[in-house]
Here is the input.
Amino acid sequence: MNQTAGTTRIGLLGTGPWAVATHAPALAAHPGVDFVGVWGRRPEAAAALAGEHGVAVYEDADALFADCDAVAFALPPDVQAPLAIRAAQAGCHLLLDKPVATNVAGARELAEAAARARVASVVFFTLRFAKETAAWVAQQAAVDGWFTGRAQWYGSLFTPGAESTPYAASPWRGEKGALWDVGPHALAVLTGVLGEVTALTAAAGPGDTAHLILRHASGASSTVDLSFTAPPAAAGVEVSVRGEEGAAAMPGWGGALDAFGAALDALLEASRTGVPHPCDVRFGARITELLADAEEQLGRG
Here is the structure.
């Protein structure tokens, strides 16, 4: 295998729409990366994606791990977790998708495996890496006196008659709903500004709608409203905080491609310095703990 001097060899696991539209193009374009190859559960899809980017296709995930310094995941969470454990054991740094798992035991096992192997990890919470929203989170986190926050994430992914997207066909999204798919984004933003969540209360709404009330280590409280079954006219995303300085609303953000490139930068930095990133696998495991708590309270576990 040929490697450009000073670059990190990285492979991709996954061949779905997220991998096609975001992960593979970002890996191929990054100047600090040698995009080694692709593994997928559907060999024909893996071959097509690898061919599109001129990289190798792997029939065996462990063979990909052996050829890489790091691996990126675009897989359902409970497929991702055991494979990521094997990757960590092989010495690969981990660029994970959210949630890292949908069960607490799997998330904790993954975090422990990464710690034992001393590999760097970053979980791709999009809004913590998109330029506009990452800057907003950092700016608000530096301000004292926040009293409360709110995140509303209403989508129509599973609303009858709504326009279909490739993600609507995802079995795990259909089973777990907005709580597990976009809930991690909302929690990652609010904890980034208001601090760790110390208490959570959940209540169910219509369809898959979930309402969360959070208490944060800073003393602030926040609310989160999530749905994939909202009427199309009601769909939208809003995040804001309020406190002594007034109110601040999160701005919009660009596409995920640049955000994934920033997450890749963060992984390379963490692997080089040994300094954990705030959105590492331990943080990802904590998000899984919170969502599992909410799911149990909702009676959906």
